[in-house]
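User: Predict the complex.
Assistant: Input components as received:
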Amino acid sequence: MASIEFRNVIKRFGDVEVIPGLNLTIEHGEFVALLGPSGCGKSTSLFMLAGIYLPSGGELLFDGHLVNEVEARDRNVGIVFQSYALYPHMNVHDNILFPLRFKKTPREEALVRVKAAAELVHVGELLDRRPSELSGGQQQRVALARALVKEPQILLLDEPLSNLDATLRLTMRTEIKSLQKKLGVTTILVTHDQIEATTMADRVICMRGGGIEQVGTPDDLYLRPASLFIAGFIGSPPVNLIRGTAENGAVHVGATVFPSEGIRGDVTIGLRPEHLKFAGDGLRGRIAEIEPMGREILYVVDTDVGHVRVLEHGSAAAHSAGEAVHIDFSPTEALLFRTSNEKLIAGANVCPPRRAS
Amino acid sequence: MTTVPLTTSPVETDWAQLARRARWTNRARTSALYAFLIAVSIPIILPYFWLVTIAFSARTGIAETQVLWRSLLVLVPAIIACWVVAMVARNLRRMLAGFAVVAAITAVAFITLVGPSLHLGNFIFLVERDFASVVRSRVGEVRGATQFPSVWRAFWNSIVLAGSQTIIVVTVASLAGYYLSRFQFPGRAPMLRSLLVLHAFPVMTLIVPMFLMLYYIGLLDTLFGVILVLVAFELPFAIFIMKGFFDAVPWDIEMSALTDGASRRQAFVKVVLPQVTNGIIAVSVFSFIRGWEEYIFVFTFLIRNTNWTMSLYMFFVRDDVMGVDFGVVSAVGVFYLVPSLVLYAAAQRYLMQMSIGGVKG
Ligand SMILES: Nc1ncnc2c1ncn2[C@@H]1O[C@H](COP(=O)(O)OP(=O)(O)OP(=O)(O)O)[C@@H](O)[C@H]1O
Ligand SMILES: [Mg+2]
């Protein structure tokens, strides 16, 4: 229940600048997801929030107060470590109880809260076990219970669901989310799973190389990715990227022409597989591969501009390999990036190629 | 019952014969291994066995070695019999039964062959302070015996020496090892290197300067002085060992403790220290034994006989009565040996885990 602000926060390890200047505000009670490739500084940012790492520069504020030098134990931050970090010499009960031992919680109340936290994450029957006697998923849930039991003002979750099976992950997702809403605790969730990020969080922060690439609602990131990097990182199967040169009101890719007004220079066209459909006219190609994906079917189409992935609804393939097809799309759903700086060109339209009349 | 051929190959495989052959190969290999182990362990075990036998059987002024051979006559067949039982027995029950039979036969043989020679007379030093004179008088020597302190006094001194040395070494090594493992500070690498180099010096080389130092600070002929010297020599290696154990403790549980509201000290005591109990036990046992066995420094730095430790007591007993009664010398040896054995026996479960060390990361 605190707002968080990073003001130009820098983190160096020796000579390596891992975070070169982070600016970010997270509101009171907000649930944000931190998304980004491995090694981009997600855990490091969380550790600075928790007070484990001291920022090398800049200011970190909770509720507008500078906390750079406040000790970890005084910050009241609950954290679930990527590696769980359960205490190996204590059983599950004592692990969950540990934070309460320093809060002067009355004994009876502490025991009740431990029980409640354990029930919440379904580890009520495991209280007597040592961490080494638990599965990875169970350890993760114990870590979550330990972070929640002290009713923190900020909850930091470093990939808390990565080791759960699909069903449990789904239930835990909803449970964490409803719990977060109920407690109103400001929460940051680190994840590699974009579906997790987009379903659970109010806002998604996409990081890259220690900086923030884009902040926005899940829809923003999906429909209006600020850069090629985000377009490629978010969405599965990945976006189709076609490089070309824009001149004379069209993007030229080899001999193929995508009509597009008002743009010049080297550009990259981004086409989401789920925004593409087969039609009577459009980009010509031949189906090379068919991959059934449950309720959708992914076609890999061999075209003059390279392989293009097309995702169609339906459980049975309506087309067969080797078939000649035309790929069509709506100009508003196509993305156009400038190749030189990889940024989105806002408001630009690209149309599918048309058969010469 | 008809047998159905399992394979279509023309040559019938005789599985039973293959299994028999594997069994025999296995047994032969195990036998060879045991034979080797027995061969190398006899020179190690035999002196201890004889030490105990002499302590309980030798009599003043009589140089008799027959009992040693008679006891061997009991021991060696017993060991071989145990080994054969272990080899031949098909299941645990039969093996235990076999051991019981061997033990019974051994006991009977021991009582008849060795039993009559056994007595506790050599342990006279436990109750008689001036046992040297008593022993000498048995062979007609009346004068010239060394003035011995009570053996319990020496025993207590040894306990104090080894115990306080251990406590200091373990405390300092834990704190220093933790600091070296976790914190970066200028000069850390040279410090680590020098820790090992320090251990490489033969302690004898420093004995004269040490003597002078103790003399000038007035700790010569005090147990405390020797304790300090021992601690100084023991510490580098102990620190190094403890640093290794702390290195194996993952950082994240410590960080987790800090965010859970623990102070640095609480995190160290409640979370980190329990992960290195094996290391602490190992360092304690080795320092204690080192202090218990210490001879050179106590010999050089302690003078009054009320300051004698067990090793000095042992030395002077050997010096004084060896020619008269090696039974008493052996009995003192057995008495000196017992605490080390008890300690090892109690701690061996932990010492065995030493190579594993720490927590899995
Ligand atoms: N203690 C440290 N000393 C030196 N470099 C470090 C340290 N901790 C992290 N780094 C570096 O900082 C960068 C960011 O690390 P961080 O752990 O924050 O990544 P991450 O985004 O959490 O990745 P992942 O998704 O794989 O967990 C990495 O390049 C890493 O090598
Ligand atoms: Mg991480």
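The longest strand of chain A covers residues 16-26.
Let me know if you want any component modeled separately.
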